Amino acid sequence: MSADRPTLAVWKFASCDGCQLTILNCEDELIPLAGAVQIAYFPEATRGVVDGPYDVSLVEGSVTTPHDAERIQEIRKSSKLLVTIGACATSGGIQALRNFADVAEYRSIVYAHPEYLSTLDHSTGIAEHVAVDFELRGCPVDKHQLLEVLTALVSGRRPQIPAYSVCVECKRRGTVCVTVAHGTPCLGPVTQAGCGALCPTYSRGCYGCFGPQDTANAASLGDQLVDLGMPQRDVVRVFRTFNAASPAFHAESERHEPALGKAGREQP
Amino acid sequence: MTHKMSSGDHVLKADPLARVEGEGAMFVRVSEGEVTDIELNIFEPPRFFEAFLRGRAYTEPPDITARICGICPVAYQMSSCAAIEDACGVAVTEPIGQLRRLLYCGEWIESHALHIFLLHAPDFLGYDGAVEMAADHRDLVEQGLSIKKAGNALMTLVGGRAVHPVNVKVGGFYRMPSPAELMAIRPQLEQALERAVATVQLVSGFDFPDFEQTQEYVALRSPHGYPLEGGTVVTSSGRSFSVAEFGEVAVEEHVARSNALHAHLDGRTNYVVGPLARYTLNHDQLSPLAQQAAREAGLGAKCRNPFQSIVVRAVELVYALDESIRLIDGWAGGAEASVAVPPTAGTGHGATEAPRGLLYHRYRLADDGTIEDAVIVPPTSQNLASIEEDLRKFVQPRLHLPHDELTLQCEQAVRNYDPCISCATHFLDLTVDGR
């Protein structure tokens, strides 16, 4: 429709809406953004719909239904660039905890009428279904990183998003290491930066909501957590939250599972 | 968005429903001048929160359940903390309670400003969305965004970030802010308060369809002020019961078209939670400034027109800003950030007032704190049956209206509730039949 401005579409899959809310949380930038791009499809913000194809598609959420597995193929076809926003779209999100359970059993225990719904056994990130041009991490994504990605895409350059760990951000901020100083368990060494080392700044250990960094040595950290006195069951739990299905965290949580025995897995 | 079927038969549809949180659609079927079918389809996929909470540690729900909703994560954190502390028989200190209320005010400000200015006002002013509206009403949108920004700034200061705050834990907080840190944000809140008072005036001048709902209203009521972080459950028919009894009184059913459960009182009566219910049942608990704003907007002691929910939300916006300034002024600092909560076997209940209405959590814990069972009743699933009831009553006398206009008004009737479909979509494990 508009030749001079790139078109932007925002799509939702299984998610909490928090990452697309982060777009609306750019209070100072929202109106300028709407001038720089044409918001062509964004149902959470507008009834207006401009038909595709779209220059940039932002995708929030994970694939959890047969219908969504088809829908993402269509979205890929109608998008020049496809960028995933957040942990759900990148690694399946918190709902990927089903990947470790028997979903058939889940349904028969939990649902009054399991036949009313249609759901897949696994929650998967978008890149397991289609080619993704860029993945922005975080549960939720960071507002400043989101703006950097949008600015880069509009100006036709690669986003400058660091791949180092949260530890680097703590050092930069001058935050005292919570593990070294207080023995507080922290996933900072294996978690990708981007939040600004928020949790250690608030006197708690990082809980890994940006997922594993590129070269995460999760096994070393897992052993360290055990040495700090963390029960095996809790080691499994800390690696199994919002990025549970990301390969590095998945493997590390499984490595601590045998130590539990069957009783640890099947809670009453 | 609308098409004609055969003569006299119509379908009004909005698929997907725009400017709501989450994925849903609305269908109204009309046959020979009669509304035959009303459906809110919730096709937001289920995410199984209650199922995977089983086997997790009792310390984890504040972080895990926050992820049910990116718009109201604090509500989930507050209700889960309340339920788990109840199960363990622990009460938090007064400063912790005050800081929780302050954080919750931040969420109300952010969420209400989002709904009033970005999601709801475009209906009244005739735009597809706020960005389109900004072309003609830039000041209005910028005012709204500045109020929203103040709410997010408060959440970021107290909670660490605006979406999924990191500072909340069972027993309190990881870190307490200093009086100086809180004072630094006071001017921004004062400015937002001034704008919120003007907002009440502005939105009270919108045109509201003549419509009154008759459903029962349900909200918390607390001796400590307008209800946010706790209280007892009261209803417009004069009933009053404890939060622990809530799970027995409100009964959910699983309906075919929806990935959300519908709740009824005693399994029969539709009811409404949210701003209108809170206001009608707690008008006297508002601050003098919020009461004055309500009076000047022409609101009485109760409000039963859901289209006027935008006015009530604006009044609550005034209250949340006024209350946050009061809490900041009274903040002494120096208190312990949390109390110890040793795990105890047992069941605990918690209910707080999310921006969209009462949010109930129940947890059964083993003696080591492992969660054996979790039940979460979000506000939107309680309102779904009432939204459909409203639509049915609303559409029938308006069938003479042009289709596009009626479709838009129906969408508006849904948006009156600020429905959060992401929240409503997850199944409760209350009913187990056919096993």
Give descriptors for this structure.
heterodimer, A: 268 residues, alpha/beta, Rossmann fold, 2 domains, five-stranded parallel β-sheet, 5 strands, B: 435 residues, alpha+beta, Cytochrome-c3 Hydrogenase, chain B, 15 strands, 44% helix, globular
In short:
The complex is a heterodimer of chains A (268) and B (435). Chain A is an alpha/beta fold and 268 residues long.
Helix content of chain A: 25-40%
Structural class of chain B: alpha+beta
How many structural domains are formed by the residues of chain A? 2
| Sequence of secondary-structure elements of chain A | EHHEEHEHHEHHHHHHHH
Query: Overall 3D geometry of chain B?
Result: globular
Question: What is the domain total for the residues of chain B?
Answer: 1
What's the total count of β strands of chain B? 15
CATH topology of chain B: Cytochrome-c3 Hydrogenase, chain B
CATH architecture of the largest domain in chain A: 3-Layer(aba) Sandwich
In the sheet with the most strands of chain A, the strands line up as 2-1-3-4-5
CATH homologous superfamily name of chain B?
A: Cytochrome-c3 Hydrogenase, chain B
How would you sum up this structure, described in words?
- The complex is a heterodimer of chains A (268) and B (435).
- Chain A has 268 residues and is an alpha/beta fold.
- Chain A folds into 2 domains: 7-154, Rossmann fold (3-Layer(aba) Sandwich), CATH 3.40.50.700; 166-263, no CATH class.
- Helices cover 37% and strands 10% of the residues of chain A.
- Chain A contains 13 helices and 5 strands.
- In chain A, strands 2-1-3-4-5 form a 5-stranded parallel sheet, with helices on both faces.
- In chain A, β3, α3 and β4 form a beta-alpha-beta unit.
- In chain A, α11 packs antiparallel against α12.
- Chain A is globular.
- The N and C termini of chain A lie far apart (57 Å).
- Mean pLDDT of chain A is 91; it is low at 262-268.
- Chain B is an alpha+beta fold.
- Chain B has one domain (49-424): Cytochrome-c3 Hydrogenase, chain B (Orthogonal Bundle), CATH 1.10.645.
- Chain B contains 14 helices and 15 strands.
- Chain B has a 4-stranded antiparallel sheet with strand order 1-2-3-4, covered by helices on one side. A 4-stranded mixed sheet of chain B has the order 9-8-7-12. A 3-stranded antiparallel sheet of chain B has the order 13-14-15, with helices on both faces.
- In chain B, a hairpin with a 2-residue loop joins β5 and β6.
- The radius of gyration of chain B is 21 Å and the shape is globular.
- Chain B starts with a strand and ends in an 11-residue tail after the last helix.
- Residues 1-7 and 426-435 of chain B have low confidence and may be disordered.
- The interface between A and B is large, with 64 and 78 residues.
